[in-house]
DNA sequence: TTAGGGTTAG
């Protein structure tokens, strides 16, 4: 088990049972640890039952291992239930519980458990500090992290390079790059972990160039990069848009035989796609023998970000054919692909997939569906989803109005304008722009005028060039060329090319060459 | 029995 061959070790455990040899406490502990890293919670529960039958459930080490096993399997509820029922606890019990919270991003509970540990008179050791630092990082609790850092210095543990890199990581995750720099500079031993933590942290915070500089500093210190260093550097490459360096890093990855590593390969796909090198991304994707959901998501996203919606839909189909389930990252992306090319039939199918995968209550995905139906021109379906949603922000309302604008449905726009007021939401400049566009497409002059005036007087929104253009377009399309021209002349400082275009197009549609020529020479 | 750095969206 300690050599990482958990499955083989577990086979021995099964064989032992078949031979009728009773397990002792150490065998149970090993079996539980294998469940924590390989077998999962369902096997863990079976072992748990078996050890209860053998009378080991009151043993402190066994209880601690159970807390750890359930936490590692992601079942914090079961972990917490055992921990809270413990009659007696030692530092390991507290450590296992805090590590569980920290690993799953439940930082507040992690810190709270740490506080309770103190109250019960336990002094933290370096292992406990590592988990609490992780908990702080996971919730970006910078002030708590600083206090912890001071405590660690007081206990003299900051000189340990393992604790040191955990402190660096905490500061980076909390966004305090200066603190991370200071701690890193003071580290007596800078190893590949602390260097990589710095590189990854800077890249995560969006500082690509600094991450690349750190990487060359690291090389000049003769530290050999590993998998995690590459993850940071690859991210830095796309942040600064340096495809050439990305290609070079790819060759470095290959020279360390890390290109078959799933996480590295996924990062390569993402790096190439974000640099716009779709062929290279696809090459890595195709060569990857066992793709996971992230591989598919990264490839789909790469296509969508570069406006290649059809291949994105193809990858989505093959993802489903191979039984890889789309998730909360896949859906917003693939729905956007449908919107881009107005693929309503495919979009409906994907909406059905959202329901079967039980993501239909996710507000981000719901918003994406409203947007997709509106952009695909199916306002009935867009409204249907919109009405089902629990909470709607101004952007989502705007999506409905944009849909109305595209389909020229001024009556629907009016209905939702009134509805919005019922929710005490103030329409913004963008909403008015959409409503005016809807009126203009429908030739509703009076309606459009009313909104324009209401926007200025009731909502105190200063009209932009887009709003003026809508009005010119509205007047021009309905043949009121003189009115349009007068309106146009009254606001010369607001004119832009779209306004001139709207006016000239209307002159042409209505065969008014005289006005058209006048406008043209004025525009010139 | 608890232990440092990990990929995809908006």
UniProtKB/TrEMBL annotation:
PANTHER family: OS07G0578800 PROTEIN-RELATED, OS08G0340900 PROTEIN
Pfam family, one: PPR_2
Ranges: PPR repeats: 90-124, 191-225, 292-326, 393-427
Listed name of the protein: Pentatricopeptide repeat-containing protein
Entry's Gene Ontology molecular function annotations: RNA binding
Record GO biological process: RNA modification; system development
Source organism (scientific name): Ceratopteris richardii (Triangle waterfern)
The UniProt record lists the keyword Repeat: yes
């Amino acid at each position: 088990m300690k050599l990482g061959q958990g499955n083989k070790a577990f086979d021995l455990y099964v064989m032992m049972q078949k031979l009728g040899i009773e397990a002792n406490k150490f065998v149970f502990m090993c079996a539980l640890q294998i469940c924590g890293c390989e077998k999962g919670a369902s096997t863990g529960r079976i072992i748990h039952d078996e050890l209860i039958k053998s009378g080991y459930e009151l043993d402190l080490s066994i209880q601690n291992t159970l807390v750890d096993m359930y936490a590692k399997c992601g079942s914090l509820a079961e972990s917490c239930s055992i921990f809270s029922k413990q009659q007696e606890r030692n530092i390991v019990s507290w450590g296992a519980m805090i590590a569980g919270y920290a690993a799953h991003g439940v930082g507040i509970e992690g810190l709270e458990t740490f506080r309770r540990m103190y109250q019960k008179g336990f002094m933290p050791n370096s292992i406990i500090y590592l988990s609490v630092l992780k908990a702080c990082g996971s919730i970006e609790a910078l002030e708590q992290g600083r206090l912890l850092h001071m405590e660690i210095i007081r206990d003299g543990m900051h000189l340990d390079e393992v604790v040191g890199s955990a402190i660096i990581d905490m500061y980076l995750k909390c966004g305090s790059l200066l603190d991370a720099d200071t701690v890193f500079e003071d580290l007596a031993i800078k190893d590949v972990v602390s260097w990589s933590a710095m590189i990854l942290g800077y890249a995560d915070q969006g500082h690509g160039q600094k991450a690349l500089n750190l990487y060359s500093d690291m090389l000049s210190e003769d530290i050999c990069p590993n998998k995690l260093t590459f993850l940071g550097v690859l991210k830095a490459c796309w942040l600064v848009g340096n495809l050439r360096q990305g290609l070079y890093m790819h060759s470095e990855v290959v020279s360390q035989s890390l290109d078959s590593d799933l996480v590295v390969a996924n990062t390569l796909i993402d790096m190439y796609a974000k640099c716009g090198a779709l062929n290279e991304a696809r090459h890595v994707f195709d060569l990857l023998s066992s793709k996971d959901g992230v591989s598919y998501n990264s490839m789909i996203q790469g296509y969508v970000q570069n406006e290649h919606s059809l291949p994105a839909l193809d990858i989505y189909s093959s993802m489903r054919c191979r039984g890889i389930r789309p998730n909360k990252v896949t859906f917003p992306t693939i729905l956007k692909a449908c919107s881009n090319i107005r693929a309503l039939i495919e979009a409906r199918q994907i909406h059905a997939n959202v329901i079967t995968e039980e993501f239909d209550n996710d507000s981000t995905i719901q918003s994406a569906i409203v947007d997709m139906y509106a952009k695909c021109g199916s306002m009935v379906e867009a409204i249907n989803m919109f009405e089902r949603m629990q909470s709607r922000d101004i952007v989502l309302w705007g999506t409905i109005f944009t849909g109305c604008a595209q389909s020229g449905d001024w009556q629907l726009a009016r209905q939702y304008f009134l509805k919005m007021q019922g929710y005490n939401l103030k329409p913004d400049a963008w909403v008015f722009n959409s409503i005016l566009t809807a009126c203009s497409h429908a030739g509703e002059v009076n309606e459009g005028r009313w909104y324009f005036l209401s926007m200025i007087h009731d909502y105190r929104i200063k009209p932009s060039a887009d709003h003026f253009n809508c009005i010119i377009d509205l007047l021009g399309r309905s043949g009121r060329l003189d009115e349009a021209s007068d309106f146009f002349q009254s606001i010369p400082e607001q004119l832009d090319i779209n306004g001139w275009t709207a006016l000239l197009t209307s002159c042409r549609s209505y065969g008014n060459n005289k006005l058209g020529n006048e406008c043209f020479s004025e525009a010139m």
